[in-house]
Amino acid sequence: MPKKEQELKLLVTKETYNALLVYADPVAPVLQQTNYYFDMPDFYMGKNGVMLRVREENGVWILCAKIKQTSDSAAVSSIELEQEIAANVFEAGRTNPEVLVSLLPKEGQDAIRRLVSPSTLIIRGTLRNERRKLQLIEGYTCELDRTSLPEDRTEYELEIEGIENEDACQHVMDAISSLGYSFTVNQKSKYQRLQEAISPFSS
Prior knowledge:
The chain has a single domain, classed as Hypothetical Protein Pfu-838710-001, CATH 2.40.320. The two termini are 32 Å apart. With 203 residues, it is an alpha+beta fold. It has helices at residues 14-20, 44-47, 87-95, 98-101, 106-113, 166-178, 190-198, and strands at residues 3-12, 31-39, 50-57, 60-69, 76-85, 122-134, 141-149, 153-161, 184-185. Residues 3-197 form the CYTH domain. This is Adenylate cyclase.
């Protein structure tokens, strides 16, 4: 089933990241994620708001398409189409992305095929990410990420899911500020930031 995802993305410093670790959920596992992004050489899909990704997460392979939506708040809004696949399906899809696209719901297939022919896609970039679930703000899913970008660059990000509107964004940001933490609101996805890191003059 398609899922509408609205999340607030906040970039934080390494120092703030380390301080927020005290809120890590002691039961939830630390997720080691490797994200493989499929696109055209010039990131044509990404530049047009569509993302195709396979994520390996603690030994589980997850196929995902995201279709960016307009948002009236600081939150990033997208339609997310996600399903678990076998490792050998990913291996087949590395050289024949049509295999992956054909497994998506019609909405995801149509969004991709409107832009490109799936057979022309390649793995355009890879990101490694370490994710921890936090017990930080009641009523919201809070996840703390440490992401490795090209050229040995590391970014630290707090993602809050379940944001309904601008009032909710402000409530969450006020709550984090009241705890003494500073941040920068970020409306770019990890994939957009990867695009900029790989092709800094083409975004």
